[in-house]
Design a protein that fits this description.
The chain contains two helices and six strands. The protein has about 130 residues and is of the alpha+beta class. The model has no long low-confidence stretch (mean pLDDT about 95).
Length: about 130
């Protein structure tokens, strides 16, 4: 199988030597997204709900570039700086997924730090 880099033009540039996503067969592996505004290329400031929304909107841009949506996500990993933010993150996260399809498998972990001082990072795997 051939690896294909996915670099949507509407996304903020990556902050390192990686792709926004990699298509391999019928799977799309999306790099972890932090709450960076694609227009200003700066970290969105605000509470965990605001940051979670920006992260999911960034994921939406990558998925849309490949004609996918949140219903195509099969696995998500959420990285939180503070597990006390779990409930608010979870409530915001849940609004992005259709109610008529199975929710993706998910892992949520607390980490010591995230890029750019973000409070959250989310990576996903989607199925075409």
């Amino acid at each position: 199988m051939k690896k294909i880099a996915v670099t949507p033009p509407k996304c903020a540039p990556t902050g390192g030597f990686y792709s926004h996503g990699i298509k391999l067969g019928d799977l799309l592996f999306c790099a972890g997204q932090v709450p960076v505004d694609p227009d200003t290329k700066t970290l969105v400031v605000g509470d965990i709900r605001v940051q979670t929304t920006r992260v999911l909107e960034n994921i939406k841009l990558i998925l849309a570039d490949q004609n996918l949506g949140f219903a195509n996500i099969v696995k998500a990993t959420v990285f939180l700086k503070d597990m006390a933010d779990f409930q608010a993150m979870n409530e915001t996260y849940g609004t992005y997924f259709p109610k008529d399809v199975p929710l993706p498998a998910r892992t949520t972990v607390q980490v010591a730090a995230l890029p750019r001082g973000a409070a959250i990072e989310i990576e996903v795997i989607a199925h075409y």
